[in-house]
Fold this sequence. Notes:
This protein is an all-alpha fold. The protein is built from eight helices and two strands, in the order ααααββαααα.
Amino acid sequence: MKHLIIVLLLVILLNSYVTKKLNKNGQNTYNGKCKLKDIGHHILPDLQDYQFIENILPAIVFLMILFNKNNINLNELITVMIILVVVRMISIQLTVFPCPQNKYKKDHDMMFSGHTAVTTMMILYLIQIYPKYKIPLLCLALVEGTIMISTRSHYTVDVYIGYLITMLLYTNREKLDLKKIVSFK
């Protein structure tokens, strides 16, 4: 399991480095003057000044995972998270949208929402332990997506695609031979 955690951290660091490097070189910026119209930005309140709330729910869900680590297949969860981060890293480099109307975010939008995807994936694993709380837990995933849109960190489509990719990966995780994907033997 230590190896998986190290790989996950390395993939996250690589993602951060590549994204910052491309932005710095101007290779991954949007030079257009238009902003995308977004229904979520139109309907939801503007919470740009409260961006710290983006990290509260993922932290709470992560703590719930840690407190239930004996009931969750952590190797599988970490492996799925590695795949999710790699898919997001590729997606970020392939898709350049103008930055949402966010006074704190200066680069470009990142397709798809990592906060939404990671939080939703952890929640799906918590549902395995607490099936009778499925609806409230899924509502937490929707709350995280709504927060990401309200803080103008992402467009609605970023959150939607984050949910879709997470659900596709989660529902197909048994078809993937995760032990072969990340094997250290």
